[in-house]
Structures are given as structure tokens and as C-alpha cells.
Design a protein that fits this description.
Layout: H1 2-25, E1 30-40, E2 43-51, E3 62-63, E4 67-68, H2 70-84, E5 89-93, E6 96-98, E7 102-109, H3 119-126, E8 143-151, E9 159-163, E10 171-179, E11 185-191, E12 197-198, H4 203-220, H5 222-232, H6 238-260, H7 270-291, H8 295-318, H9 328-360, H10 364-390, H11 402-436
Parallel strand pairs: 1-10
Antiparallel strand pairs: 1-2, 2-8, 3-4, 5-6, 5-9, 7-8, 9-12, 10-11
């Protein structure tokens, strides 16, 4: 009779004592970090707020029914700030790392304290009086505010920061606001570790960053790769390729720039709609390859679907434009350049491989049909899956007000630009076709 009771007691004891270390080392699912960065004469300050529960491997002293002992926790807060925050933030002045960091202040705060709405309020609260010892709050709900100071040579230098705070949670979102010496504020929001963030980038820094972004977006996006592949499978000679790729480039440039300037619907259903249309464009191109494609129809289709793909490119660009600083035009241009470089790299690999396969492995017409059939099968499943996701959204009629009228006018301008570009392309293709026709001598 006693053995089951003993086993039950041991099991309950194991649960009781085993749960506490597990809680202490659990990684929070979602962590939000708020930070201000401001250069001042002789120093650069970072004022930062993070959840205290993200400071793991720290045994926070408790009192009463599991509440944080604020008096005993205060000295531990500085150690936690050094271990989890200061050691994982690197600041650069004119490209040179600032090695010396001083934790000027730490403070345990309540979530209800809305002091991080402005730099001055955040600094005053963090360097001000601590919470009264009588405040009762579990450590998992508390926040830690930190002031870091770095010695600098000039507040007008070019500053960069490498925040490596993703380790604070499974998904860490950082909202960082940079206060320039003139008082202007520049906001950044990113997930995980963004690498080096140039707080006041020069135009060539922004340009190089967005060239790389455009290349990686093309090379890492399987749907765009398949579309480019479908474009060129039947046309692998230089002149037809130039016409087709130029039509696609002109079209996606129009909608990419338009989207970056805000000329797109802000409804939640718009991005899923574009993703479904991209899949539909791949499916159509693959089926046209199977049936048979001609140059005149191909450049028109490339232009039309290029308008759709431009919106897709804009979704990848949207979160990164915050890192462009004041160089929006340069960033848009260089992102487009990166996209074109990526396309050229794809074509440089795909065309020789296709030519070799159609010469040595399979007859050209049969090879086009087989490859296009595989692509069409994949695109069909993408289109159906994305269509199901789109069906979850509610479509509502927009409110007919002045805002809608302004948006409609901007959209009409974009359509006019696209129509003008299509007409110019049509004239160019017509002259290209006439130049290829054999000339007959008159007698």
C-alpha cells in the first residue's frame, strides 16, 4: 500500500524541482527590443529597453508569492545588461569599431511605464529613481532599461551599429531610432540580427547594399527564377533575348518604383493576390512554351507579367528601404540593377545548359515540352495553394473619399506610364523585326 504513495511523492517532487530550472532557461518566444541611438559631443548614447525575462541564466531574487525583489535585483541588472546586451552590440565611428562601452545606468521598469516614446523621456526615466521596493511584479513581466555610452571624436561622424540581440528570444524584433545631431529622427525595425546597420549611410553604401539585395532576391526566389527560365527556353539567341528581357525589366521597374512611392493598395489581400498572379504567370508561360511561342507575343506577355512581378519585388524591398537613409532614389535604382545582374547570371548559366541539353540529350522541341510541363505542374500547385490563402481574406469596397480619389489618380498615372512604355517597346520591336527581314533589290 505504501509503494504507490512513495512513487507518487517522488514523481510530484521531480515535477516540482524540475520545473524551476526549466523555467529559468526557457527562451522567450517573442521579444521586442526598443532602442534610441544619439551622438552627442564626446559620446554616443544608446538607451535600450528589453524584457527582463530574456536575461536567462540569471537567478533573480524573489519575495513573497514569487515577486521580484527589486532591492536585491538592482545590482544583478547591471551584470545581466553586460552579459546579454552590452557584449552583443558593436558600434562603429567612420568604419572604426568603438571598443570602450560604459553601462551608465540600468533600471528595472514596469510594462505600464510608457517612457520609450521619446529619447529624452527614456533617458530621464532610465537614469532616474528606481522603482519603489514595495512594487510587486513577477520577473517574467518586468523590463530592463539600459544606458550605454561610447566615447567618440565627433558627433558628426558616420556611425554604424551591429546589434546581435537575436539570442534574446526565438523571434526578436528591434525598433531602433537614430537621433541625428540636427535633431531629425530615423526609425528602423528589423527581426533577428540585421548585420551592420549604417545609421547615416552615404549614397554609395546604400547603393552597394541594395545591389546585393537585388541579386540575392533573384537568386533566392524560385518563382522569379522559373519565370525567367520560361521566358528564354524557346528563345536563346541574343537579339530576341534582349527584346524579351528588356520588356520584362521596363515593366517591373515601373511597378517597383510605383510601389516604393506608395501607389499600391494597402489592403491585406493585395500581397497574396500578387503572389497568386506570379504563380499564374509562370503557369501561362510554361503552357505557351508547350503550345508554341512567337517573339511578338512573348515580349508583350513579358511586359504584362513584368508589371505583376514588379509588385512582388517591392514586397522584398519594402522592409529594407528603411536602411536607405535619405537615398531613396539611389536605393531603388541600385536594387533594380541588382535584379538585372541576378537575371543575367541566371541566363548566363541557363542558356548554355539548355543548348547543350537540346543538342546532346533530347531534341529541342521535346526538351522544351518536357521542361515546360514540369514547370507548369509546379506553378499550378503554387497557384492553387496561394489562391486558397487568398480566399481567407475579406474583400471590401474602398471608401469613396478624397484619399481614394488621390490613390486612383496616382494609379492612373502609373497606367499611362506603362501604356507609353508598352507603345515605345512595340515600336522598337517592330523596327527590330523589319531589320531582320531580307531586303529585296528593286530593278
Amino acid at each position: 500500500m505504501r509503494r504507490p504513495a512513495v512513487l507518487l511523492a517522488v514523481a510530484l517532487g521531480a515535477l516540482h524541482f524540475g520545473a524551476r530550472p526549466l523555467d529559468a532557461h526557457d527562451i522567450p518566444a517573442r521579444v521586442t527590443v526598443m532602442a534610441f541611438v544619439k551622438p552627442e559631443p564626446g559620446r554616443l548614447r544608446i538607451v535600450l529597453r528589453a524584457p527582463l525575462g530574456a536575461m536567462r541564466d540569471v537567478t533573480w531574487p524573489e519575495k513573497g508569492l514569487g515577486y521580484l525583489d527589486l532591492v536585491k535585483a538592482a545590482p544583478l541588472a547591471r551584470d545581466a545588461a553586460q552579459l546579454w546586451i552590452a557584449d552583443y552590440i558593436q558600434v562603429f565611428e567612420n568604419g572604426q569599431p568603438l571598443a570602450v562601452v560604459r553601462i551608465a545606468a540600468t533600471r528595472i521598469s514596469l510594462p505600464s511605464e510608457r517612457t520609450f516614446t521619446a529619447y529624452d523621456a527614456a533617458l530621464a526615466a532610465t537614469t532616474g529613481a528606481p522603482l519603489p521596493a514595495s512594487v510587486e511584479i513577477p520577473h517574467a513581466q518586468a523590463l530592463i532599461d539600459v544606458v550605454l555610452e561610447y566615447p567618440i571624436t565627433s558627433e558628426n561622424s558616420a556611425f554604424s551599429i551591429r546589434p546581435q540581440l537575436a539570442r534574446l528570444g526565438v523571434q526578436t524584433t528591434t525598433v531602433l531610432r537614430y537621433i541625428t545631431p540636427s535633431g531629425a529622427e530615423r526609425a528602423y525595425q528589423y527581426r533577428g540580427d540585421p548585420g551592420i546597420v549604417r545609421l547615416d549611410p552615404r549614397w554609395y553604401h546604400a547603393g552597394w547594399q541594395f545591389v546585393k539585395l537585388g541579386i540575392t532576391h533573384i537568386l533566392g526566389g524560385i518563382d522569379h527564377l522559373l519565370f525567367v527560365l520560361c521566358l528564354v527556353i524557346p528563345f536563346r539567341k541574343l537579339k530576341p533575348l534582349v527584346v524579351i528581357v528588356t520588356a520584362f525589366t521596363v515593366a517591373h521597374s515601373i511597378t517597383l518604383v510605383s510601389a516604393a512611392m506608395g501607389v499600391v493598395p494597402d489592403a491585406l489581400w493585395f500581397p497574396p493576390l500578387i503572389e497568386m498572379l506570379i504563380a499564374a504567370s509562370i503557369l501561362y508561360m510554361a503552357l505557351e512554351n508547350i503550345v508554341g511561342a512567337n517573339l511578338h507575343r512573348r515580349w508583350l506577355i513579358a511586359f504584362g507579367f513584368g508589371l505583376v512581378h514588379g509588385f512582388g519585388f517591392s514586397f522584398a524591398l519594402r522592409e529594407s528601404l528603411q536602411f536607405a537613409g535619405p537615398h531613396l532614389a539611389v536605393s531603388l535604382l541600385t536594387f533594380n540593377v541588382g535584379v538585372e545582374i541576378g537575371q543575367v547570371l541566371v541566363l548566363a548559366v541557363a542558356i548554355p545548359l539548355l543548348s547543350w541539353a537540346f543538342t546532346r540529350v533530347v531534341a529541342e522541341r521535346m526538351g522544351i515540352i518536357i521542361l515546360s510541363a514540369f514547370v507548369a505542374h509546379t506553378a499550378w500547385h503554387w497557384m492553387m495553394e496561394r489562391g486558397r490563402g487568398l480566399s481567407w481574406y475579406d474583400f471590401t469596397m474602398p471608401t469613396m473619399d478624397m484619399g481614394f480619389a488621390a490613390s486612383a489618380m496616382r494609379a492612373a498615372i502609373v497606367l499611362l506610364i506603362a501604356a507609353a512604355a508598352a507603345w515605345l517597346m512595340s515600336e522598337g520591336v517592330k523596327r527590330f523585326a523589319e531589320s531582320r527581314e531580307p531586303k529585296t533589290e528593286s530593278r
